[in-house]
């Protein structure tokens, strides 16, 4: 997500003209508002940008149909699609070349799901939970592949994959590394927080899939959890009488928002408050910027 934000900022720094961005670059209102203030114009579809304008695809990816409209309108695209999403798109294309129809595990209406489903119109099926699998009607049960929305986690998809494998034994399931490492790492961290904290706060956006999943992880472990967008959302009554509050954040949440939340919690707790951090995980992945924006 940081990569997508940097792409917009670099594009803005290189021109005095408006830079158009299809959809919110990431699901975080503070980030979007900040980029808008710097000159980014957010649109839902390419035909809302004037002919010849620069158009950035969001981190969630787009369908070939969107790319075709961009080309026909003479727009100058910059692709900020997360490389993990691009990898899934390539898997869809490979499976189609091999004659497979494809089941996608993901949330209906999510922009990443729409972009991925658009890679093979008419040949993809969407399921969100294990219960969806029983009623799934496919053309050929022996010729199926599977991909997932990247902002799910291994935990999110495990039971759905089990149900798919039980009903369609020959289905080709996705590899573990198709799932966003940042999403899985954050869910693992929230599990650790929930083992120690009496309350877990997740800093993120209501539209952020991975942020909402973090709240669910803590709640399922029996620890009250709230999704907040910034420090001002914290109700002082939530922490009254508590000894330990855990804080985590969605993958697209800027670090400064998390720092403000921690600072505000310390102010509410008083002079006796202390801050402890879980060990930092080196996720070990660094993705290049698009060639148009490399120095």
| Helix-strand pattern | HEHEEHEHEHEHEHHEHEHEH
User: Could you give the distance between the termini?
Assistant: 20 Å
Shape: flat
Please identify, by name, the CATH architecture of the largest domain: 3-Layer(aba) Sandwich
How many β-strand stretches? 10
Largest sheet: 4 strands, parallel
The CATH topology of the largest domain turns out to be Cobalt-precorrin-4 Transmethylase, domain 1
Q: Uncertain runs with pLDDT below 50, 5 residues or more? A: none
Helix percentage? 25-40%
Number of helices: 11
CATH class of the largest domain: Alpha Beta
Q: Indicate the proportion of strand residues.
A: 5-15%
> CATH superfamily assignment of the largest domain?
4-hydroxy-3-methylbut-2-enyl diphosphate reductase, catalytic domain
Rg to the nearest angstrom? 21 Å
Strand order of the largest sheet: 2-1-3-4
Mean of residue pLDDT?
89
Supply the helix-strand structural class: alpha/beta
Q: What count of domains describes the coordinates?
A: 3
Observed structural traits:
295 residues, alpha/beta, Rossmann fold, Cobalt-precorrin-4 Transmethylase, domain 1, 4-stranded parallel beta sheet, 3-stranded parallel beta sheet, 11 helices
In words, what does this structure look like?
The chain is α/β, with parallel strands linked by helices and 295 residues long. It folds into 3 domains: 2-81, Rossmann fold, CATH 3.40.50; 84-178, 4-hydroxy-3-methylbut-2-enyl diphosphate reductase, catalytic domain (Cobalt-precorrin-4 Transmethylase, domain 1, 3-Layer(aba) Sandwich); 181-269, 4-hydroxy-3-methylbut-2-enyl diphosphate reductase, catalytic domain (Cobalt-precorrin-4 Transmethylase, domain 1, 3-Layer(aba) Sandwich), CATH 3.40.1010. It has 11 helices and 10 strands. Strands 2-1-3-4 form a 4-stranded parallel beta sheet, sandwiched between helices. Strands 6-5-7 form a 3-stranded parallel beta sheet. Helix 8 runs parallel beside helix 9 (209-220). The model has no long low-confidence stretch (mean pLDDT 89).
